[in-house]
Please model this.
Amino acid sequence: MPSSARSLNPSEAARHLGVSAKALRLYEQRGLLNPMRTAAGWRAYGPHEMARAAEIVGLRTLGLSLAQVGRLVNGNSQGLEHTLAAHQKTLEGQLHRLAHTVEQVRGLRSDVAQGRTPTLAELTGLLAPAAQVSVAFDLPWPWGGERFELRGIRSLNYIVGPLGSGKTRLAQRLAETLPNAAWLGLDRLARGGAAARARLAVDPALASKVDQAMAWLVEDGATPSDALVALLAGLEADGPETLVVDLIEEGLDTATQEALMALLHRRGAGARPIFLLTRSCAILDVTAVGPDEAIILCPANHSPPTQVAPCPGAPGYEAVATCLASPEVRARTAGLMARFADKAAA
Model:
C-alpha cells in the first residue's frame, strides 16, 4: 500500500499493483471494483479500493477467472478446487526443480571437499533457470543474411513490426530452428477450424484440456468461436517444447483477446516458451510487459530484428507502439483494404 492515504489516479494505481490501467477498467466493468470519483469525474483509488484491487490481482495470479473472483468475493467457492489443484501442480513442479538444484549443490560441495574446484559454468548454472533456451541463425530474405541471436528466451515473446517488415519470415525461421518447435499458422482457420476439430474428436485428453481452457476464457468474457477452438487446440497440445503462433488475435474479438492473454499469463514463470506474432494492443500491452516476456521488433527498413525494452524512451519502443492497434481499428483497416482490393480487381 502507498505510504500516504491519498488517492491514486488509474496510472498510479496500476503501476503500484503491477497491472495495466486497462485491467483496472476491466475489473470495474465486471463489478469487482468501484473506484471513487473526483469532483471533476476522474477515477480515484483510495486505500479501500487499492486493498480490494490487490486482492483481485492476487486471485488472478492464483489462476482464477474474473467470474470466479466475483463468485469468491460473494462467498461462492464454485470452481475453486480445480484452480487450487492446478496451483498445487505448479508448486510441485517448482519443488521438483528446487530439489534437483539442491542435489547439484550437494554434489558441488562434495567436489570441493575432495579438492576439486567447480567450473564457473557449474556455479552460475545453479542460478540460471532450468533449460534456458537460446537460438542463433542467419536471417532469411528480406534481410541480407545477418546473424540473429536470441538468448534467454522468455515464456511469452512478442514479434511485432509494420507490414512488409519480414516478421512472418522471422517467426517461421524461429519455428524451423528452435528444437522441437511447432508453427501454428493461419491455416488453422481453414474451413472453420476443421482440422482442429477433427484432431479433438480423436484425442479425448486434448479435447478435455481445450474444454477446460474454453470454460475459463468464457468466464473471463471471451466469445466461443471456431477461431478460438482452433487456437486452443494448438496451445493446449502436448509435445512441442516451443510454439510460434502467427497472428494469434486473428478471428478473436477484443474481450476474447484480453481473456486469452490473462490465460497465457497465468501459466507463470518457466512455462513453455510461446512466440506470438501480433499487431493487436489487446495482445501486447506495452505498459504491462512482465519480467518473463520479451518484445522482438522487425523494423520497417529491414534492419535486423532487435529486442526492445518495454520502457518509454527505450530504442524501438515508439516503433513497437505504432505497430499496434486495437482490434476495432484493425477490423476497420482490414475492411478498407478489402474494398480497395475489390476496386482494383474490378
Observations:
- DSSP finds 13 helices and ten strands in the chain.
- Strands lie at 36-37, 43-44, 135-138, 147-150, 156-160, 181-184, 242-245, 274-277, 293-297, 306-308.
